[in-house]
């Protein structure tokens, strides 16, 4: 898996597409939550659920179906005054879906694990992308602190950090041009 830092960074970059500065912190925090929450499935190890199980690590919680469900749920709970079928509701669902789905994209670009069940529950096969430049992050804080974690952070700075900064610069430029 990519680290929680990389997932959150990408989601915050995606959330900057919002034009409302008024609630940008809330929007960005929810976007980061959506991007990180799929890894809550590691708790299943404590219950004896194997990695490759439907509910195991990188299983259903890493799927596009889960991303859509979470996008709808976050919009419904945190934006109660916004009808889901409205333009704003659909935009919020899409952004939260995109942030959650970005988790699977990054994990499918890592150098380890069993792959990602992107199409679960319809297809529980695990997939990687053919191009896998991101160093896989160890599971657990203890294992992350040390040389392995440093290698992961260096890899993520190159493959997630730089593109995120470039994306933010592009969004900023487009917003500035639209204001003129």
TrEMBL record:
Q: Which InterPro entries match?
A: YdjM-like
TM region positions: 60-79, 91-119, 157-178
Task: Identify the keywords attached in UniProt to this record, alphabetized.
Answer: Hydrolase, Membrane, Transmembrane, Transmembrane helix
- Superkingdom of this protein's organism: Bacteria
Q: Name one GO molecular function term.
A: hydrolase activity
Q: Name one Pfam family in it.
A: YdjM
The protein's matches in PANTHER family, at most eight in alphabetical order, are given as:
INNER MEMBRANE PROTEIN YBCI-RELATED (PTHR35531)
- What is the protein's given name? Metal-dependent hydrolase
